[in-house]
Amino acid sequence: MDGYHKMADLMSQFPEIVIFRRFSALNVRNLLYLQAELAELDNELHHIAVEDSNSDDAQRKLYSTQWWTLNQSMYHGDSLQWKKVLQIRDKVKEYNAALLQINQTSALRQPEPRNLGILRAWLQRARGGNCALRGMEATVWDPAYTSDLVALSHKVEKNDPFTMWIVKGFLSFFHIHLGHWLLVKSLNILNI
User: What is the secondary structure of 23-73 as a DSSP string?
Assistant: First the structure.
């Protein structure tokens, strides 16, 4: 199978290349729209509450001080303020969920360049993905979106301090100072 099936199989076998686009700008734009909607709803509620408080109706005057009276307003034919409160309640839930989701996704790490390179190469190879996806979804991993990509899994190699010193300290020093000299000497011997 090709397409999504083949790609999902690959990603399930190699979790370090489970890489997705964050869609940061769209997430922020959505949050801005929700914020604007809430600001408008808040303004509408304020005006309705002022009207109810200034009303000649004794019941409506109580809406801002007695939740029960406001809640029961739907049975008295004047539920405009209560309906607006319920509308705001739903929108606030949606806004808060989006806010928390953006916070969580912004904490996701970018993929390791090596792993992203492996995925991109696989997508292009004839025996690999062979451009597995068509249409706009095929552009998700393009270099233009590199900063917007997240990896859901990172291999963390846990090494003891001595091993880390050998790998990062000694081997780096050896490679820089002696490895280059040995390579040059080998190439000279081979006349390359």
Answer: -HHHHHHHHHHHHHHHHHHHHHHHHHHHHHHT-S-HHHHHTTT-HHHHHGG
Residue 20 dihedral angles phi and psi, to the nearest 5°: -130, 160
CA distance 6 to 126: 13
Alpha helices per DSSP H over 54-72: 58-62, 67-71
**What is the residue-level pLDDT of the chain in tens, covering all 192 positions?**
677 888 888 889 889 999 999 999 999 999 999 999 999 999 999 999 999 999 999 989 999 999 999 999 988 888 899 999 999 999 999 999 999 999 999 999 999 998 999 888 888 877 666 666 777 887 888 999 999 999 998 765 555 676 666 656 665 666 566 655 554 555 455 444
| pTM confidence score | 0.71
CA distance 178 to 168: 15
Q: Phi then psi for 149, rounded to 5 degrees?
A: -95, 145
Query: In Å, how far from its chain's centre is CA 140?
Result: 14
Q: Which residues contact 10 (CB under 8 A, 6 or more apart)?
A: 17, 122, 128, 129
Extract the tokens encoding 190. 């081979």
Tell me the two tokens of residue 165. Answer: 């010193």
